[in-house]
Amino acid sequence: MTRKIDIFDTTLRDGEQSPGASMNTDEKLVIARELLRMNVDVIEAGFPVSSPGDFESVRRISELAGYDATVCALTRAVDKDIVCAADALEFAKRPRIHTGIGVSKSHIYDKLRIDEDTAVERAVHAVELAKSYVDDVQFYAEDAGRSDYDFLVRIIQAVVDAGATVVNIPDTTGYSLPDEFGRRIKYLCDNVKGIEDVTVAVHCHNDLGMATALALAGVRCGARQIECTINGLGERAGNTSMEEVVMAIRMHGEELDAHTDVNAKEFVKASRLVSSITGMMVQANKAIVGANAFAHSSGIHQDGVLKKRDTYEIIDPADVGAGQSQIVLTARSGHAALKHRLEDLGYEFDDAKLDELYEAFLNLADKKKEVYDEDLESLVNERDREADALYKLDRLQISCGFPLKPTATVTLVDPEGEHVTVCEWGTGPVDAAFKAIDKVIRRNVDLTEYSVTSVTRGIDALGEVTVRIKDEEGGMYIGRGADGDIIVSSGKAYLNALNRMLEDNKR
Ligand code: KIV
Ligand code: ZN
Fold it and tell me: Is the pTM of this model over 0.85?
């Protein structure tokens, strides 16, 4: 059996320190409920002395969590912080006070303006005071990532002797390299007496984009608790992201001698929830929970994934609540992807028809960034309409604008295969195009209805035009046309209605 790694979520404390991500108590409770569903081990609910809102959040989350998770409150190594945290945790079934002090030379001399002996004294006093309220006391050695190895051993030894149950070794500034950070954790494990009886935790920031790697290096070298946040939210560049670290442990559990009890199926839901509450967008290419995390765009990758998912995917998207792998249809997609998508939509075509559609698809994909299902349906319908048409639209060119007279030049292919080109002007570009088509077909019809709708989202969406015409005998005919250019859609729709009328007259 591999070691159980405790997942300590600090979305509500360090995550909330992200500029612009502050949350009120009700919002924190919604996230806390989700954290409980995810089965995290510890919820850091806030920094009670910092504001009445944080105090209230710690209280309410303590009541909510019951025995299901440890609820933790942050303090500085300052008496009033610790008393306030103890008060906020009054109703917690599993309370933890998280106290600590800076341990690097920069923090001791430049920030706190004390000396190392005083830092050790304050640390020990803080742990002893916290211990007088709760059994579970976690000590953080702030800026441990830049501290002197032997001073770190000294202060951690002192707090372990004072009764700390968890010692948290943060890389507060995200400065370390993973192997060096791992060596630091190992050095502590080898040199602090009694450390085997306490939990060593890692809390890593992402200033060099290595927060997840740092946390894993810590686990490899002896850490048994990882502090992390949903979406990697946190001060500056953020913290270790929970979804990344949990999935990495799941994937490499044997090598790391580690497992967690977190329910990964909640990850996408939790990510969206935190993003919508904090207003912090998740980048599309974010590991595990980004919109593109399971989306395949290149033809080579799509072909591989369609043959066997794990050719290009190491995680089953269903395992993190992301549904299915996505095949994104773009100009780089191949026949295999188009065929697969069409089959999903219920269409089956022989190879010749598929080749034809593929060509039309590429033309469309060159104009649009992404081809959606609705575009494909429209494309298929358009091909069907064109295949049966007596008259086919070969070219349509418009010139219009201020102070030009809208003019359309149209080339149709007639039932004998002859190309007929005409030119007409009208009150607008659509009117000019319809008049030019009328000039070739030479039938008197009334246009009784005309509407345009967008087939999909975005400025590059296909526009679908529907027209209704009435012939001299009162017969009504509907026509449809779709194209990225709505004047072309209009011409196609009008011609489609006329073709239907001509077919009907023939019959
Ligand atoms: O980054 C850090 O050092 C912290 C501590 C308060 C744990 O957030
Ligand atoms: Zn932090």
Answer: no
- Kindly give, in sequence order, each residue whose CB lies less than 8 Å from that of residue 103, ignoring residues fewer than 6 positions away: 119, 141, 142, 143, 144, 147, 151, 152, 155
Q: For 148-169, what is each residue's pLDDT tens digit?
A: 999 999 999 999 999 999 999 9
* Closest residue by CA, ligand 1 atom 4: 172
User: Token pair for residue 385?
Assistant: 């309409």
Q: How far is CA 33 from CA 26, 37, 40, 233, 308, in A?
A: 11, 6, 11, 18, 37
3-state secondary structure of 196: helix
Query: How many other C-beta atoms are found inside a 10 Å radius of the C-beta of residue 316?
Result: 13
* Distance between CA atoms of residues 231 and 240, nearest Å: 9
What is the best residue among 10, 72, 112, 168 to mutate for testing ligand 1's pocket, by most ligand atoms within 8 Å of CB? 168
What residue owns the CA closest to ligand 1's atom 2? 172
**Ligand number with the minimum distance to the CA of 201:** 1
Write the pLDDT tens digit of every residue in 303-331: 999 999 999 999 999 999 999 999 999 99
Query: Cβ < 6 Å from ligand 1: which residues?
Result: 14, 140, 142, 168, 170, 172, 203, 205
Helix (H) and strand (E) counts in the chain? 17, 18
Residue positions counted in the chain: 507
> How do beta strands 295-296 and 326-327 pair?
parallel
Q: Which amino acid is at 394?
A: D
Test site for ligand 1: of 78, 82, 137, 172, most ligand atoms within 8 A of the Cβ: 172
Strands (E), 41-150: 42-46, 70-74, 95-102, 136-142
